[in-house]
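Handout for the seminar on molecular recognition.
Each group receives one record of this type.
Step one: identify the two inputs.
Step two: read the structure output and locate the region that could contact S-adenosylmethionine.
Step three: write two sentences on what you found, then compare them with the reference statements printed after the record.
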Amino acid sequence: MNKLEAYPTLSRLYDLQLEVFPAHEDFLKRRFENSSDEHIGEVAQLAEIVERIAGYNLRVIAEDYAWLTDRMLEEEYHFRRTGKYRLSTFEEAERTVYADPVFMQKYMNGVLLSHLWWGNHSRVIVYFRRQFLPLIREGGSHLEVGPGHGLLLYLAAQSQAGSVTGWDVSETSLKNTRNALQAMGVEKPIALEAHNIVNAPSQKFDSLTFSEVLEHLEEPLEALKILRSLLNEGGKIFVHAPVNSPAPDHIYLFEDPEAIIDMVEQAGFKIEKTECFPGMDAPIDRARKLKLTISTIVVGTAI
Amino acid sequence: MTNEAIYAEIEPVFRELFDDYEGPVNAELTGNDVDQWDSLGHVQLVVSIEQIFGVRFDPQEVTDLPNLGALVDLIAAKKSG
Ligand SMILES: C[S@@+](CC[C@H](N)C(=O)[O-])C[C@H]1O[C@@H](n2cnc3c(N)ncnc32)[C@H](O)[C@@H]1O
């Protein structure tokens, strides 16, 4: 594709993706035709990281992305027909997704590539780098709950944080995060541990990432209160959760961005900044009217 | 139900979902003519149609249709069948 020519890695990934998933051409073409040159430059930087994390698995990861779009479409039909997410309990999500190594591996691979192909996902990462990472305390301790594929924990490890910790319920996610940090040559102290956020150990951190986990929980407000208790006073939190976004392991439906923002505030955070990135880069009014997915970001301070 | 009657019911839904499109809503329309008609938009269109006409589609049968006319034919077949 012409617009990507200046970026060899991104072009290569684009061509590979269409080679294994030709039916996605219209989607990907539109995605980049509608993106500014500046944003494409940012996605090209992410492509360098994704390619290194993927290593020799790149083709499999591209196939798993295609598989993921099928799963998402099934969930989308269910959601549009019923107005509800298919699952409602953590137990079901754990059994059918997190604790199933084959499903979870494909899922995390697909999500990793979605950060290049879905405008809302790539914009969340760009925002995280530009607007959140500079708030992390110099030499401070950083925690991510639910790092999954490891991309955001890697970016945090690149910041001025002194140490990074990842907690996840899924062994497959912990393995992926470990591999990602290793592939990227991270040298800082890293701790990766199996924990469910609802039974978290009592430790203290200076900053925290909680991206695409809130909607996986039966009692998201309780989880946010636990996160609050894990932060030192003045600590910063990055919460990212989607509204109207069916997926194989989403159980808690947020119907508008305000529901997420209010919940973060209620859990004991001062809201510093919020941002909305609608799916397919749709205008926000249209996204609200048609109840499309909106990736919602809340940056807060523990008070 | 005639195809004409089906188009009359579909058109307002189609225009609400894909509001950048201003051309005619007819059998020849494809995703290439309508920028907003992507795979997720298609799910919303299909589900709205299911609700209006009281029919149910298997997602497989409504994926990769050549144009809107093919979808209308499917509705007509379900309504008469
Ligand atoms: C969709 S992935 C998010 C990956 C990454 N943070 C991102 O934003 O793309 C969700 C991750 O949260 C983990 N997770 C789900 N529920 C959890 C819980 N109760 N406690 C800890 N981790 C959880 C899953 O195992 C998975 O790795």
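Reference statements: The first helix of chain B runs from residue 3 to 17. Chain B has one domain: 3-80.
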